[in-house]
Amino acid sequence: FFQAQDAIRDPLWSRGLGDVYKRQVEKGEKVMETLTNFCIENNIHSGQLAGIGAVKNIDIGAYDINTKDYIHRKFDEILELLSFQGNVALKDGKPFLHAHITLGTHDMEVFGGHLFEMEVAAVGEFIIHDFRDETHRKMNDEIGLATLSLCKIEE
């Protein structure tokens, strides 16, 4: 297994556990941007993502299969990140993260959707499981999205 300490520049914020990484995202950092950059820097082309924390400036959505477009909702307030689940695959030759989240309010109301971006408000704790393989996304015209393809994409 790959030993992450050989490749990670800042062991204070990231620690490798074989092919699993713990990645802390700092207050004020954008989650999807930070995790995407982490995958690029560490050559992660296929994997699973999970996380929890407290977030704000959240842009989530739901895909409308009829219009083939996302419905967006934005939330500026600080919310609990109850669950962050996603995957990593190559899209146009670069790591692409696809994630869904569940959020909770201080009134204990829960909702969620497809994550476009969010900012860490207090703490963001994430796990990245690198499959040490390549998974690709390929455009599915019927659905209107680039979906997972387990076959190698000819570029």
Task: Write out key terms for the chains shown.
155 residues, mainly beta, 7-stranded antiparallel beta sheet, two-stranded antiparallel sheet, 1 helix
Write the layout of secondary structure elements.
Layout: E1 14-17, E2 20-25, H1 31-41, E3 47-64, E4 69-75, E5 79-91, E6 94-104, E7 110-130, E8 136-140, E9 145-149
Describe the protein.
This protein is 7% helix and 58% strand. The protein is built from 1 helix and 9 strands, in the order E-E-H-E-E-E-E-E-E-E. A hairpin with a 5-residue loop joins strand 6 and strand 7. The longest helix is centred in the N-terminal third of the chain and has 11 residues, at 31-41. Strands 1, 2, 3, 4, 5, 6 and 7 form a 7-stranded antiparallel sheet that branches. Strands 8-9 form a two-stranded antiparallel ribbon. It has one helix at 31-41; strands at 14-17, 20-25, 47-64, 69-75, 79-91, 94-104, 110-130, 136-140, 145-149. The protein is globular, with a radius of gyration of 16 Å. With 155 residues, the chain is mainly beta.
Low-confidence stretches: 1-9
Tell me about the biggest sheet?
7 strands, antiparallel
Write down the Rg.
16 Å
Q: Which geometry do the CA atoms define? A: globular
Number of strands: 9
First-to-last CA distance:
29 Å
What is the helical fraction, as a range of percent?
A: under 10%
Secondary-structure element order, as H and E? EEHEEEEEEE
> Average pLDDT value?
89
Beta-strand portion reads: over 45%
Question: DSSP helix count?
Answer: 1
Computed structural class:
mainly beta
